[in-house]
Design brief:
With about 210 residues, the chain is an alpha/beta fold. The chain has one domain: Rossmann fold, CATH 3.40.50. The chain contains six helices and nine strands, in the order ββαβαβαβαβααβββ. The protein has a seven-stranded mixed sheet, with helices on one face. It has a two-stranded antiparallel ribbon with strand order 1-2. α4 packs across α6. The termini are far apart.
Length: about 210
């Protein structure tokens, strides 16, 4: 029996994946477990990578508005909230994944400080970008399926440019890609000391 093809706007890495244990690794909710089915549409950031990212961000996470463009399980946004972010906006197009994400937020009583949009990130940024107060810096996470940097390259760059143009002072962007994407294409190239390699992932922060 053939495997059903996935739509290009919900795919992640090819092949089946086994469910893995996901947990929050720092802050108020440290040790909390999150639900994850192993669906191959979702690519949760590994614990060690998440820890490294938040070490690079440091105390600047506190008081921010987290915007997670491809939210998946919600692990990144929840990690940020655990470490002091004030509120979060999470965008996830795949409905079963979004439902699981909502359960993860409910389990930690985070729905009051979260906005969950079950829609396409490109559409949301282009048409429904809701802005918090100018005094709340954003912490934007862009961790899409890697193939988007090829198949939807111009859309990706336009989306990030629009967010960059509207971002309040003090905002930070965290970009996850693979080695095929050149960070010099971003609205601002991350400095060398804020680029990390965790094969196949590459993380840049600006």
């Amino acid at each position: 029996m053939g495997r059903k093809k996935l739509g290009r706007n919900v795919g992640s890495e090819p092949g089946e994946k086994e469910p893995v244990g996901l947990r929050i690794i720092g802050g108020k909710y440290r040790g909390s477990k999150l639900q994850y089915t192993g669906d191959n549409r979702v690519r949760p950031m590994k614990d060690r990578v998440r820890e490294s990212v938040f070490n690079l961000i440091g105390p600047a996470v506190k008081g921010t508005h987290v915007i997670d463009l491809f939210a998946g399980t919600g692990a990144i946004a929840i990690e940020a909230l655990s470490r002091g972010s004030r509120l979060a906006t999470l965008i996830e197009i795949h409905l079963p994944t979004a439902s699981l994400l909502k359960k993860n937020l409910e389990g930690l009583d985070l729905l009051p400080v979260c906005n969950l949009f079950k829609t396409d990130a490109f559409y949301w940024v282009k048409s429904e970008l809701s802005l918090p107060g100018a005094d709340i810096p954003w912490l934007v996470f862009c961790c899409p399926p890697y193939e988007f940097y090829v198949s939807r390259r111009e859309e990706m760059l336009a989306m990030l440019q629009r967010l960059y143009d509207f971002a309040p002072p003090g905002s930070q962007f965290v970009i996850e890609s693979d080695e095929h994407f050149d960070f010099a294409s971003l609205p601002m190239e991350p400095p060398a000391h804020r680029i990390r390699h965790y094969p196949p992932a590459k993380i840049g922060i600006f």
